[in-house]
# Entry
Amino acid sequence: GPIHLGGTRWAAVGDALGRILSTQGAEVTREYYFNDHGAQIDRFTRSLIAAAKGEPAPEDGYAGDYIVDIAAEVQKRAPGALDLPEAERHETFRSIGVDLMFAHIKRTLHEFGVDFDVYFHENSLFESGAVDKAVETLKGSGNLYNADGAWWLKSTDFGDDKDRVVIKSDGNAAYIAGDIAYFQDKRSRGFDLCIYMLGADHHGYIGRLKAAAAAFGDDPDTVEVMIGQMVNLVRDGQAVKMSKRAGTVITLDDLVEAIGVDAARYALVRSSVDQSIDIDLELWASAGNENPVYYVQYAHARLSSIARNAADLGLSAEGANLALLTHDREGDLIRTIGEYPRVVAKAAELREPHRVARYLEELAGAYHRFYDACRILPQGDEEPGDLHTARLALCAAARQVLANGLGLLGVSAPERM
# Structure
């Protein structure tokens, strides 16, 4: 279905983390894992067929306007699809419907400023035989055993809290079978660190994914699992409950429509992923200093205005004597600017992009206080002096760091507001 708020948080955090890791010399590949195999896709397909027939969604199916829209588009592309024999009808709605849904997801992410290097399809692991191969490898190593007609991973041998079913007693693969094959696939492509970004209900995956790595004789530290907590929208002090488009959940599109891309990305990145967050729609849509993204962007716009005004006066920061910057507010701003490399390095090390957002707010605050206390450009008939030049250099540095930090978060640095 459409990307819900939890997934939207990972889009913002993951993209920022990729950018931050790149600053530290990492070669980063951003990969989106499409769950296009198994029961979820079957329910999705049956929901499309029901919508095409004008019937309510199946009890375990998906509801929402997007299902109706996709069902109508399937029928445009495959006229008479409803009249096909049952198996053929199911496959027609499945294949076209999945393609349409994924196209929507990619388009939505792109508009959010998030593009992936690889779109990986879970189903490809089954079609290619990668799942069967992974299962046979684990059987051969003795790390898979048969009990009650099912095949179990000896995950407790590798620190998990219980053994996990890989092949169920009915012969069908459990969800973890695809996860195991996917890990092997990533490692075979040369990645020495695999960072998984999963939802709040996936805590159990930390142990099982690390155990799967160890069962292959790999280092469990090649797997890192980040668990993202819930996101809630609030308006007028009340929780916003649902989206008509998606039926039961609020989506990325809903959030962007309410507060815009920049505010949405900043709001989602600003807090540790370990914390649930409430996004106050009125606050994040406002043009005031209480809105953190406005506060940071306004500092950049103000600095850009100073640069334009200086250029109009024929002033530049070239040859600035920085020893003249002795005011307390100048010192505060210089020290805050100097913290930037350390903050980014720590954000990369701890996988915590929110450190960059919080730092930018500190930098914007230091700049606003400096601006209030120190005259930057000459006024009236005042002749430009060395102190003006030095302060222009300080402003240029602050502007550059604000732009760099906003860029790491995927947020724009406007020159006018």
